Amino acid sequence: MIETILVATDGSEAASAAERCGIALAAKLRARLSGITVVEDRDVNSPAGDDLAVPGFPALELAAFYKSRAEAVSGRFGQRASGDAISATCEIAAGVACDRIVERGQASGLTVAGRDGKSARGALIGSTVDGVVRKSAKPTLVVPAGAPVSGPILLGFDGSPGSRIAANLAVQLANGLGEALHVFVDSKDKGRAVARFDEVRQLVGGLSVPVRENSSTLGRPDVKLVDTAREIRAGIIAIGAFGRNRISEYFLGSNATSVVRSSPVAVLLAR
Question: Which three-class secondary structure state does DSSP give residue 153?
Fold first, then answer.
């Protein structure tokens, strides 16, 4: 079971969506909740002057500003959690944000982060969450701004080890949240699709909520998965972080990357 949830927040709109999602999950799953916000080194460290005649870098003023801002972000998170009768603190760390979040996330069952960051636009993924999802060895829930906090769980299953882990997490979430589970299988070979459905039925057997099956043999699987999420008004898409043709630890599977970038709902990357 997911017993601990870590929410990464930076005060941005996307981080606010991640806060709401993490708090809602903690309340329904009765999980312990904590947060982390990071004062980035690049924001407060003096850039190289390169012997140019430039004014002195206001390091002390910037450090004081970002410390004050981090304290405000931390306080907001605690207040939002207490509004849902959850006790939670938000740690203030310093360094490279994605590294501090990954380190802190090792002690949590699930890390929740906003997708778009402070500077990303549209379907782009923020640099911090990009680093988190590539470096973390734990499940990560990536939340776009405006994502719903409830709805059916959509499992994208391709038979890979990651998708089997995603199936286990999807079962936990469906049971804990009381939401229906939809299983999406994409295969150009109908016989293989049938075999995958047989496999996933064994993985999700015994669920106390409805299980519905969806499949496609046409079009790109990432696009069809996101389209299905819209059609069923899903709350979470659960997929393996790596596909069947995994190359290295650092790179996400191509379908996973596309789904994270384009999904209007939270995406759970399982590993």
Answer: strand
